[in-house]
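Team,

Forwarding the record for the chain on the shared tracking sheet. I've put the sequence and predicted structure together so nobody has to dig through attachments.
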Amino acid sequence: MTTSTPVRARLTPQGDPPPTVSVASARHGTGFWVVAAAFLVAMAFSTAPTPLFPLYAAHDGFSTFMVTVVFAVYAVGVMVSLVLAGHVSDWLGRKRVLLAALALQCVAAALFLTSAALPVLLVARFVTGLGVGMLTATATAYLHELHAAHRPGASAQRFETVSTAANIGGLGVGPLAAGFLAQYAPSPLRVPYVVFGVLLVVVAVAIALSPETVRISGPRPRYRPQRVSADHGDRNGYLAAAAAAFSSFAVLGLFTVTAPGFLAHALGRPSHALAGAVVCTEYVAAVLAQMLAHRIAARTKMAFGLLAQAAGFLTVVTGMHTLSLATFLAGGIVAGAGSGLMFKAAVGSVVAMAAPARRSGALAGLFLVAYAGLSIPAVALGVATLSLTATTAMTWFAGPLMVLLAVVAVLGRRPAAVR
């Protein structure tokens, strides 16, 4: 880590010198917000195609099931990348891996611009997933280390709030921005990717100028794929965090893949802007819940998150049965708030228990489980819609979700489960 260089103090009008400012600390403070911005832009790009799926389906004539396949291909790319590269920044350096992840996102943007055909869409979504898998654990660990270097000894609340807000908030910004661009700008399947492509290049340049936080010395460890291990000082705590991350992303994913089709087909509202805004509300609720609950103990956040997820998901299903947009939207907001609380508690718990040399690996394992939650239920929902309506399928999904939330509650009550 860079050695701090004090700036020469200047006398104030009262004659008292201001506090000594560290150049290195200031660079780490700037780098913290640069990485947060890059994290948000990359995650927003990953969900930008969500409100555009009806356009892609009309272009190639594929079914609702294929939409869930396209969604799942992205999640598979994330998981593959997490297994292969989610942990390598622990010895290659955060900045190098983050730049590689952003480069993959730029490649995906270029693919989206070349064609709207289904094969190209599948490849572009898989490449997007590869980039996100490299980025999530790396950016989270990078933010933690930049925060610690900028504010030594300070509470980790700022890191937890900013990292999870950039992650989940970015997932919500993507559909909102792409939906409005598709609705009101020309070339709806091109303009969103041009905008995000430019933003990705800008944040990549900013990352290149940011300080590194990993000291690379000695021989490089022998490479091996990431293992999902609960051995990070608190096995019960890691299992509780992993289960919470799975359920959080499962609820977010199910709402995301269901909302555009429900609006367009069941309610007869095919607006891309509306679809993006409705999906965005769930993620905004998640971020706001995280910000408002920053002074609440982690165990309490987990408890509130469990209740909100259960109540919100049941309300979403009720809205689908009654064809009520207000009820559907209210359920998404409540469920999103619950997901945000649970995911923030999970990330904070893992960062606290993992040793610095294994932090990226521990987070990679957590995100691997989370993205399994994002993909597996979504694919299962797509399979179910081959013989059932989306409303009936979501109703059946409520049962397993309630069981999963009960499991999270039991794991969370064990000693030292949530920090």
